[in-house]
Amino acid sequence: MQTSPLISLENITVRLRDRPYLHNTSWQIHSNENWVVLGPNGSGKTTFARSLLGEVPIVRGKITYHFSDDDRQSRAAVANAMGYVAPELQREIVEREIRKNFFRELSGKRHEFTSVKELIFKQTVDATNEIHRNKRLREVSEKIGIEALLERDVTSLSTGELNTALIARALFKKPKLLILDEPFEGLDEPSRRSLADAINALAHTGIQLILITHRFEEIVPNVTHVLLLKQGQIYKAGKKEAVFRSEIIEDAYEVDNPSLQPDPQKLFNALPRRKENKLQPAHKEHTDPPRVLIEMQNVTVQYGPKLILDGFNWVVQDGENWMIRGPSAAGKSTVLSLIHGDNLQAYANEIYLFGQKRGAGQSIWDIREKIGYISSELQLRQHQHTDAFAVVCSGFFASNGLYRKCNAEQVATADAWSRFLGVKALADHKFGRLSHGQRQLILLARAMVKSPVFLILDEPLQGLDIKNKSKLQAVFDYIGRHTPTNLIYVPDQEAEQLNCITHILRMDQGRVIDADRVPMGKGLDNQYRLKNP
Question: Is the model's pLDDT at 328 over the cut of 50?
Fold first, then answer.
């Protein structure tokens, strides 16, 4: 079939702050081609996408938009012809809405909010009449499955819900090219399958796709070509059957490089010798009756008529590592927020942490001093212009931003974790300028510097490549088996499991379905080895 070029890159080099990317790169996407962009964390995938959008400076070469009837080198001339969805857009929207809510509070308009419908409509630049806009909105919302979200407050959406709303916003403009950067993050399995079907179907509607992902199973069937990046350069590019091969992928991700394999024992030998860092035998067996760390008795959480937790009961003892499973809206995140101190309804329920009832003398800072917490949404709360190493050090004080000077021991601990996780070279980089996966590694270092009693892992592998996923799973397993820190783990996908897990809590619709102990020594399958594409 004869195809025509859509976009051409001719010997371009772009600059991202003080670093050149895509040096002397040439590439082209044709009509009837749908590409997936792969590569390790920090390889330049998002920079590549932003280059196509004209959002990073081009210092050499040129980009040609062949579908433009006007200036084919002008990004402004093709703005409405390209849709883009990425985690960075979520951060921008959340930050903007937080500022708006602050001014609404000051002006006595606290009842006002930005709905998903308004979010979609506000990006319309032409004088489209309301009847046409509402018809188009119905078409898009039905295709993506967001009808129930249209009247919701944008700030009340989960990461996955907001991501889906942004895809609908991009489709609303009827773009010729749709770039999706990690569109499945934060979605449960049914929602992920539904969105994958919708994305795959777009290939038959005249829209060309560029999908950026870390998970190979998220490559939809209608993808025809693969662009593989490594260290800011195109490593391989071509038809899927020629590039998406085990030997090429493994080489690009360096999954078998012995020098990159984690050595948790070496890390803990480098940490200052404190009681909290003392190694323990596997499975952390106790001779005395273990201490109860968390106890929830008939907990109910409700927002208006919506019941989030319904008579929830749960007990966690010292030495136990729990995995929480359940579909979207099961109440998993609410349980974590009650533990971490983010939910005020904790004080209206029978909840005990470390043997003391919530609200009976423990401040939120007393609680957070004993808890490490990692989630993709936590990235939104960090000061984006703070140096990465300062973010790591802020973990000692459970603060967003570093306002106190660390002592020598704290600096040494932060340095050891940064080196172990491979983010020491990012120490002077601004947190907001790092890739999603790099920020996730920084947040893990931040959580672990204080050797917490609990490490809460809320979908901690989001945005990580196969090498870093395998690395973090090994670290989590080591922490769960050989340190005093207990894990509470909510996986992003059913396949993302840990060997150190001792108990599984299954939830649905705010209730406990069952709570089982994993047989000693069995653990859970925990391998992120590359399967043959």
Answer: yes
Backbone φ, ψ for residue 127 (5° rounding):
-90, 50
Which residue shows structure tokens 């619709």? 509
Alpha-carbon distance 525 to 411, whole Å? Answer: 35
- Residue 63 binned pLDDT confidence (cut-offs 50, 70, 90): very high
CA atoms lying within 13 Å on the CB side of residue 94: 20
Q: Tokens for 61?
A: 């070469």
Residue type for 116, please?
A: V
The two structure tokens encoding residue 371: 């808890």
CA distances from 510 to 28, 192, 258, 283, 326 (A): 49, 21, 44, 30, 10
pTM for the structure as a whole: 0.78
Q: What is the pLDDT of residues 481-501, one digit of tens each?
A: 888 889 999 988 766 788 899
Residues facing residue 30 across a β-bridge: 5
Give me 401's structure tokens. Answer: 């931003």
Q: Quote the tokens at residue 266.
A: 């070496």
Report residue 444 as tokens: 């893990």
63's tokens: 């980009």
Q: Do 34 and 201 touch, CB atoms closer than 8 A?
A: no
Residue type (1 letter), 158: S
The three-state secondary structure class of 83 is strand
Do residues 359 and 433 make contact, with C-beta atoms less than 8 angstroms apart?
no
* Angle at the Cα of 53 from the Cα atoms of 48 and 54, rounded to 5 degrees: 95
| Residue 16 identity (one-letter amino acid) | L
Which of 378, 55, 51 lies closest to 229, judged by CA?
A: 51
Q: Which residue has the tokens 């809405």?
A: 97
In the chain, % of residues over pLDDT 70: 87
Q: What domains can you pick out in the chain, each with its CATH number?
A: 5-253 (3.40.50.300)
C-alpha span between 525 and 523 (Å, rounded): 7
DSSP helix/strand/coil, 426: helix
CA 414/CA 394 separation, integer angstroms: 10
Which residues share a beta bridge with 176?
none
Tokens linked to 148: 């129930």
Place of tokens 């136990």: 320
CA–CA separation, 131 and 164 (whole Å): 23
Query: What b/e readout covers 175-191, taking b as 16+ CB neighbours within 10 angstroms?
Result: bbbbbbbbbbbbbbeeb
SS3 524: coil
| Strand ranges for 122-186 from DSSP E | 177-181
DSSP-derived pairing of the beta strands 233-239 and 225-230: antiparallel
